[in-house]
Structures are given as structure tokens and as C-alpha cells.
Write a structure and sequence with these properties.
There is one protein chain. The chain has a four-stranded antiparallel β-sheet, with no helix packed on it. Strands 4-3-10-9 form a four-stranded antiparallel β-sheet, with no helix packed on it. The chain starts with a strand and ends with a helix. With 180 residues, it is an alpha+beta fold. Strand 5 and strand 6 form a beta hairpin. It has one helix and 15 strands; from the N terminus they run E-E-E-E-E-E-E-E-E-E-E-E-E-E-E-H.
Length: 180
């Protein structure tokens, strides 16, 4: 578990609580492949968006490849050499990723289990915790942002005051128009 983070200047900031990552999952969109041809100038893209259909990908004149031949250990291969001059490169974007974390806060008997995902933050101490990304090569490290914003409540109060003011302006301005 960790209880401090490194600032941009290299110094350490004590969080006032401990955090530990328990779990990490990624859901991906269906893969698509781009086709490249080797030329005198290097590899040039010659086709895009070859997708799985009925458990296989049809690369046209370069053959039909079954899904099992495009995978290794449950993961799609990044590149497939179709012949001596043609290469298929896999693109598979992330649909969703989530990290399960445990927060150990002082004065609290039981640790708190929290899920972090993009746009789903957690709070601990004076911090909001954001999941920013992960290492796609190994998926064994995540990028987390700890944000401390002491002016957050002032901003919320200001927005609420503006809404009330606009509402009152509409009501009182409407009454004056009716009276005339």
C-alpha cells in the first residue's frame, strides 16, 4: 500500500491515508485490422477496418484468417505477417477500465473498498481520487490523480447563488411586466 505521492517537483506529499490496488479490469471493443504493404519507402497503409465476421477476418486476396490464428493466450496479436510484403496491424480500443482499490483511513476500523473508473472518482481525506490510465503493455500499474481543491465548496456555493439569483430575476421581472 502507498501513503504518499510524488509531486511534480519530485518531493513527496503525505496523503494522510493508505491506498492499495486490489484489482484491475479492462473491457475492449471488438478489434479491427489495418493492412500495410511494404514498399521502397517503408510500410504504407493500403486498407482499413478489416473486422471479425463469423469468427474470422477476410483480408481479401491475402486470405481468410480464423479468430484462433489471430490470438495468443486470449489476446489479439498486435501484428500478423500475411505474406512477405503485407502486414495486418490490430487496433482494439478500450471500452472501459476499472480499478478496485482499498482505502485505509486513520480513525476508521474497517478499510473501505472503492471502485475507480474514468469519470467515477473516490474521496479520501481531503482528496478526490481519479483513475487516469494504465500501462497497456503489462496492465500491472495504473495512473491515479490525487486532487485537493480547497475552493470546491466555494465554487458550488457560487453556482447555487447564481441559480437562485436567476430564478428570482425571472420571477420579479415577470411580475413587473404583469403590473404595467
Amino acid at each position: 500500500s502507498y501513503n504518499s505521492v510524488q509531486r511534480e517537483d519530485g518531493s513527496l506529499l503525505d496523503l494522510g491515508f493508505d491506498i492499495q490496488v486490489n484489482d484491475f479490469t479492462v473491457e475492449k471493443y471488438e478489434p479491427v485490422w489495418d493492412l500495410y504493404e511494404q514498399t521502397e519507402n517503408g510500410w504504407e497503409k493500403t486498407g482499413t477496418d478489416f473486422a471479425l465476421q463469423d469468427g474470422q477476418v477476410d483480408f481479401g486476396p491475402y486470405g481468410v484468417w480464423p479468430q484462433a490464428d489471430l490470438m495468443e493466450n486470449g489476446t489479439y496479436l498486435n501484428q500478423i505477417l500475411l505474406d512477405d510484403r503485407h502486414l495486418a496491424v490490430c487496433r482494439q480500443a478500450d471500452r472501459y477500465y476499472e480499478a478496485g482499490i482499498v482505502l485505509y483511513e486513520p480513525g476508521v476500523k474497517e478499510p473501505r473498498q472503492v471502485s475507480l473508473a474514468v469519470n467515477h472518482t473516490a474521496r479520501a481525506g481531503d482528496f478526490k481520487i481519479y483513475l487516469m490510465g494504465y500501462d497497456p503493455a503489462s496492465q500491472d500499474s495504473i495512473q491515479v490523480l490525487f486532487k485537493k481543491d480547497p475552493g470546491e465548496w466555494i465554487s458550488v456555493a457560487g453556482i447555487a447563488a447564481m441559480i437562485v439569483g436567476i430564478f428570482m430575476l425571472c420571477i420579479f421581472r415577470g411580475r413587473k411586466a404583469v403590473e404595467k
